[in-house]
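Methods — Computational structure assignment.
A single polypeptide chain was analysed. Its primary sequence is given first, followed by the predicted tertiary structure written as structure tokens.
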Amino acid sequence: MKKKSILEKYPIISIIVPILIFAFFFAVRPPFTQDDLKSVFQEEWQAYKKDKPNFTGGLAMQILSPRGNYFLTSDMESNVTNNSRFRIASISKIFTASGIMLLQERGLLNIDDKITDNIPGTNITYLPDEPNYNLPYKKDITIRMLLMHRAGIFDMANDAIPNNQYTANKPYLNDSYIQYIQRSDPKHTFTFEELIGVNSNNQLSYWAPGTNYHYSNTGYVILGKIIERVSGQSYSDFITKEFLVPGKMVDSKVVFDGSDQSLPEPFTKGYVWANGQTEEVTISNLSANVAEGSIYSTPIELANWSKKFFSGQAGLSKETVKQMMDGAARNDDLNSTYGLGIVYIPGWGYGHSGAHEGYLSNMIYNPDNQTTYVIYTNMWNLSKGVDSIKAELLTMTDIAAKVLQKMGY
């Protein structure tokens, strides 16, 4: 006698199985498509550009989420993919902060030490006891204050050199020191000692450490020097060895040489828009931005690293990452949400933005829904100076919100 099949023995299975398959398919299948997301993304970017003649820049976004991974572009050149390099600018600060926190995990420094203290177990101070490191209020500055932009460090990357008794006869008075040097030497390689020395020799400071908040690129330059002193390696070698290589960021690099000004293929060209005209600015000397903004990467590599980092899988423990995140979310007494190298955006999550001439970006991780995104444009809107750049970044954030809303977040 022919043996009965399972379905013949238990005919109800023939009903249940299709139902389960049907239910599983529609439960997992997201209520949107790549084209749906692309449509929202492109419509919003076109709306931003519509009253800007010759504004040819594009927008790109890499999303990693439980509901799928997507890469979207609008008006980018046809060869731009999620493997195309771009300058991540101040997003680099998360790597610097991570380097500091990794050294703390290893017992090689303490972020609550003063920068005049000795490195644990040595008779070597965090910063050299030399004239170029004679910063104002030096004995009152802690490493934590530098991480949180509370040390009052003058930011020479963004502010012109002010007039005081030390700067009165300097040729770069009322000018950007960095731009002043580059005008006569475009390939000049800036060093930590040189940049910190400008602040020290001219006694430049905003206020006493710990009394207020002021974003300072130069503060992170100091952290770069501390990483070198503690690790015994160059900043670029340390970050590459500890984060880029383990993170499989093979298309990313810490730029430190003034002559290393181009991006290797494939890359996204950078532009600025002012007075109704567009100018390409891809070529750039990043040596003055080491430790605060000199890394280039790709959307997919940066998003993947961000996902691992905030999950405690990028070299730092979950406890340390949580400490960095908590420092941002709870840091409101000085009207700042900047923690230990991380910015907290209520309702959005944690991350950092980046702005270097021709490139504007944002990297965000939301622990509530485990979504990560990297969004960037290759066009600076300089029609109203810094204000229009800030407005452009807000527009990008709004576009990202609408895309994620379409995904059900």
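Note: The chain has a mean pLDDT of 92.
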